[in-house]
Write a structure and sequence with these properties.
Strand order of the largest sheet of chain A: 3-2-5-6
Helix content of chain B: 25-40%
Low-confidence stretches of chain B: none
Oligomer: heterodimer
Largest sheet of chain A: 4 strands, antiparallel
Strand content of chain A: 35-45%
Number of helices of chain B: 4
Number of strands of chain B: 4
Distance between the termini of chain B: 21 Å
Structural class of chain B: alpha+beta
Number of helices of chain A: 2
Order of helices and strands of chain B: HEHEHEEH
Largest interface: A-B, 40 and 64 residues
Structural class of chain A: mainly beta
Shape of chain A: elongated
Shape of chain B: globular
Mean pLDDT of chain B: 87
Helix content of chain A: 10-25%
Order of helices and strands of chain A: HEEEEEEEEEEEEEEEEHE
Radius of gyration of chain B: 14 Å
Strand content of chain B: 15-25%
């Protein structure tokens, strides 16, 4: 058994070596993602009583991941590059950390101690669900804009829940959800007061799949009739476009005299 | 169908009729029935397949069906028939009247 494992390990090493050796010759656009080497970021936040801590990771200003924790956090399979970690909890100032990820390395960040906020703030939390099935929608980006045009984003977790902490009070807040599978949704929230937690449920409508008809069910009404050329009984060719250019056309298919 | 053809004409429509009959059968049909509208032969079923109207019982022939197209070539109506060869002529006039 041990021998088999060693052999397997060797095979893996050879595969990795092969992967490295060939990437130089490959056009960047066609590199298989599995060959891109990744690293991790881990860290710790000093616990705060009874409050959950949101840890978000951004790359070039775009939210790419998010976890909820009471102390430690980790982001894995990160491509090489610079990242920003945002740590926030209700009633505490948001702390930002920067980290650079290298392949096959784990970046350990210093422990974060959150500072209690002195200014009054409000919070929003919500659930995203499919309007038809009622199922929660995970990993969907929710973007928030304040009246002062400050932007924040959050991803929904596996239960479809998202949250925004420490929002300014007395401002109209707009939430935007845009996802390729769903119709865009915009929610305007009237100004919140200090310490208010605004809970909402947002239902998204799935964009229907394009209509396809079964065999023998014809073409979709509203689509363009495909042009064609066919002979008549005297072998003279007729094309559909000769007829449609000036007129309505009634096109009849019949079973024939077979 | 021949008697309806003039009505379709006067409603501003051209009539094209297609079957999988070969060219000589098509010629006979036109001559025997004295048809003066366009009857075309789609022996290889290319167009019948393109329009997704192959008969489900006999895949060598077309399912009786009617499309109404506007001058832009857009399909504005569609009627699919069963095994009995009945062209929904009243529906055709109604639809042409709307265009």
């Amino acid at each position: 058994m041990k021998r088999t494992l060693t052999l397997l390990a060797l095979t893996c090493l050879m595969l990795i070596a092969y992967g490295c050796g060939t990437t130089e010759d490959v056009d960047e656009d066609v590199i298989d993602k599995s060959f891109i080497q990744t690293g991790s970021i881990s860290g710790e936040v000093q616990s705060i009583d009874g409050a959950s801590i949101q840890v978000r990771i951004l790359k070039a200003g775009e939210l790419i991941g998010q976890v909820e924790t009471d102390s430690t956090y980790e982001f894995t399979e990160l491509e090489e590059g610079d990242y920003t970690i945002q740590i926030s909890a209700q009633g505490y100032e948001m702390t930002e950390l920067n980290a650079t990820v290298f392949a096959d390395e784990i970046v350990s960040l210093v422990q974060t101690v959150l500072v209690v906020l002195t200014e009054p703030v409000s919070h929003i939390s919500g659930v995203l669900a499919d309007i038809d099935s009622g199922n929660p929608l995970a990993n969907i980006l929710v973007q928030l804009t304040t009246e002062d045009e400050e932007n924040m984003s959050a991803l929904t977790n596996n239960e479809g829940v998202f949250s925004f902490e420490n929002l300014p009070i007395d401002q109209i807040i707009t939430l935007n959800i845009s996802h390729e599978d769903y119709e865009d949704s915009e929610i305007v929230i009237q100004p919140l007061s200090a310490d208010q937690i605004y809970d909402l449920t947002i239902q998204l409508t799935k964009i229907p799949d394009p209509v396809t008809l079964g065999p023998g069910e014809g073409l979709v009404v509203g689509s363009i009739a495909p042009d064609f050329e066919l002979p008549d009984g005297n072998s003279a060719q007729h094309s559909l476009s000769d007829y449609t250019s000036d007129n309505n056309v009634v096109l009849i298919f019949y079973r024939g005299s077979w | 169908m021949q008697q309806n053809y003039n009505e379709i004409k006067s409603a501003g429509g051209e009539l094209i009729v297609i079957s999988s009959d070969n060219i000589s059968t098509t010629k006979n049909t036109v001559q025997n029935e004295g048809l003066d509208y366009t009857v075309l032969s789609d022996g290889s079923l290319d167009v019948i397949k393109t329009y997704n109207v192959v008969d489900r019982g006999n895949t060598r022939i077309a399912r009786p069906s009617t499309y109404i197209l506007n001058p832009q070539g857009t399909i504005v109506s569609k009627f699919l028939g069963g095994t009995s060869h009945r062209v929904p002529i009243q529906d055709i006039f109604t639809e042409l009247g709307k265009l």
